[in-house]
UniProtKB/TrEMBL annotation:
<dbReference type="GO" id="GO:0016814">
    <property type="term" value="F:hydrolase activity, acting on carbon-nitrogen (but not peptide) bonds, in cyclic amidines"/>
</dbReference>
<dbReference type="InterPro" id="IPR052349">
    <property type="entry name" value="Metallo-hydrolase_Enzymes"/>
</dbReference>
<dbReference type="Pfam" id="PF07969">
    <property type="entry name" value="Amidohydro_3"/>
</dbReference>
<dbReference type="InterPro" id="IPR006311">
    <property type="entry name" value="TAT_signal"/>
</dbReference>
<dbReference type="InterPro" id="IPR011059">
    <property type="entry name" value="Metal-dep_hydrolase_composite"/>
</dbReference>
<keyword id="KW-0378">Hydrolase</keyword>
<feature type="domain" description="Amidohydrolase 3">
    <location>
        <begin position="165"/>
        <end position="434"/>
    </location>
</feature>
<feature type="signal peptide">
    <location>
        <begin position="1"/>
        <end position="35"/>
    </location>
</feature>
<dbReference type="InterPro" id="IPR032466">
    <property type="entry name" value="Metal_Hydrolase"/>
</dbReference>
<dbReference type="InterPro" id="IPR013108">
    <property type="entry name" value="Amidohydro_3"/>
</dbReference>
<protein>
    <submittedName>
        <fullName>N-isopropylammelide isopropyl amidohydrolase</fullName>
        <ecNumber>3.5.99.4</ecNumber>
    </submittedName>
</protein>
<keyword id="KW-0732">Signal</keyword>
């Protein structure tokens, strides 16, 4: 009976999360239109080009309100944040300017939260920015069928790689993300063309986006004979060696993973593998990667398993054991917070010290049309599926969107922003982080290392 109740609650939460995601989609469409309107007005309003300036009227979290020992609310206050050369140099009482010669801008009472991080996205292949195109039906199709379809589609997409990558970047910045990790196809159809195009686009966004590139053998490292191209991608500046389903696609789990790790070790790079397999082979692959990192300590802290759906097949006891092993080897999990039948043990991973991050994955492409580019939506889904809807739990759920940077610690002590932090943050229409997560609050402006990446900043009233 207990198992049935747990299953029923899980299905209810998944359904609830899907409804929330659908509602968010409508909001995102409206919000994006608003963002475009703001951009069109930008020439007539204030933007920020200063290297040293004040930002007034910033709403910061300062502590928790308690009833007995229970957190029932979040304290906030307006402050001025002094920014110089991309860093926060002081957090001051509101409108207290030691240097009257500096320009001051107004956050208009918006809540400041750490910049969001979209740590699994595909900027190099997308329908986004072009005409609407739904994916073809996947009924009865295997991943190998999808790979064959992609091999036909890629030449049609490549003329638009730069234009659409720029559109995706504008989208995620409008939602508060200025830090990202993009997977980039490296296989015989694309060669290094997608990598070259993506590097060009990212070179044009050095001021407003920090983005790592994963060389991704989407058609199978062994299956598509892409090892040589992957090595060329490492030499060309890719940051991570990617991989894909070593059993289902490459049909040789150990050989595929060994080849991936060998490239990483040869070029002193990190690893970020797509692992969708939910069969016992997926669990075997995770265990093999844990073993490999344990035997090659230089890989500790440099390996990410994206999706890792096999973790959802483990019993609670198995999940606990695996989480401890992942934490010991400092292996990161990148989850898109799936809302279908897979219930990932993300809370167990977090509890045991595994670094869990999230990302968009596909926005609109031949795999999926549902991506919003919104990490706050991912935090909302995490909160619905894995925590309770109270003030403290909601505020903690923000961590999956920010790389574990939170304004307050669990005891309500202010941790961020602090002197010396990067001036990378998002301003939102919310009273606190708990409300922002629960309501997926609208974004007002996004800053990256002091640079205004999205939005408009009016001058502060004297």
């Amino acid at each position: 009976m207990k198992a049935e109740k747990s299953s029923g609650r899980r299905e209810f939460l998944s359904t609830s999360a899907k409804v929330a995601a659908a509602c968010t989609l409508f909001g995102a469409v409206s919000g994006f239109a608003s963002a475009q309107d703001q951009t069109s007005q930008k020439a007539g309003q204030s933007s920020i080009t200063d290297k040293h300036y004040y930002l007034d009227d910033v709403l910061l979290e300062t502590g928790f309100n308690y009833q007995d020992s229970t957190v029932i609310g979040t304290q906030t206050a307006l402050h001025t944040v002094e920014i110089r050369d991309g860093k926060i140099v002081a957090v001051l009482p509101n409108k207290q300017h030691a240097d009257g010669t500096l320009n001051a801008y107004s956050a208009q009472g918006k809540l400041m939260l750490p910049a969001f991080r979209d740590m699994h996205i595909h900027l190099d292949k997308t329908f986004y920015g072009g005409p609407w195109q739904a994916p073809q039906s996947r009924e009865g199709k295997t991943i190998m069928d999808m790979i064959a379809l992609e091999q036909k589609l890629l030449p049609e997409l490549q003329p638009f790689t730069e234009e659409r990558a720029n559109a995706l970047i504008a989208l995620i910045q409008s939602q508060g993300s200025t830090i990202a990790r993009s997977h980039c196809n490296i296989e015989p159809v694309s060669g290094l063309k997608n990598l070259e195009a993506l590097q060009k686009v990212l070179g044009e966004h050095q001021q407003d986006l920090t983005c790592e590139i994963v060389a991704f053998p989407q058609h199978g490292l062994l299956h598509s004979k892409s090892e040589g191209l992957m090595r060329e991608a490492m030499q060309a500046g890719a940051h991570y060696v990617g991989g894909l389903d070593p059993t289902n696609v490459d049909s040789a789990m150990e050989k595929s993973l060994d080849s991936m790790f060998k490239i990483a070790l040869d070029y002193n790079k990190g690893v970020d593998i797509h692992l969708h397999e939910t069969s016992p082979a997926g669990v075997a692959a995770i265990n093999y990667m844990i073993k490999t990192v344990d035997e090659n300590r230089s890989l500790r802290g440099k390996v990410t398993i994206s999706h890792a759906f096999a973790l959802a097949t483990l019993t609670p006891e198995q999940a606990e054991k695996t989480a401890k092993q992942l934490a010991e080897q400092q292996i990161t999990i990148a989850s898109t917070v799936p809302i279908g039948t897979l219930h990932m043990p993300l809370k167990t991973l977090n509890k045991n010290g595994v670094f869990v991050m999230t990302g968009t994955d596909s926005v609109i492409d031949h795999w999926s049309p549902f991506g919003l580019g919104d990490m706050l939506e991912k935090a909302n889904l995490y909160a619905q599926l894995y925590t309770r809807p109270d003030e403290l739990s909601l505020s903690r759920s923000l961590a999956i969107a920010t790389g574990n940077i939170l304004p307050l610690d669990e005891k309500g002590q202010q941790m961020w922003p602090a002197k010396g932090d990067d001036a990378s943050f998002v301003l939102l229409d919310a009273s606190c982080s708990a409300e922002a997560v629960a309501r997926i609050s609208p974004r007002f402006a996004t800053f990256h290392k002091g640079h205004l990446a999205h939005g408009i900043m009016p001058k502060s009233a004297s």
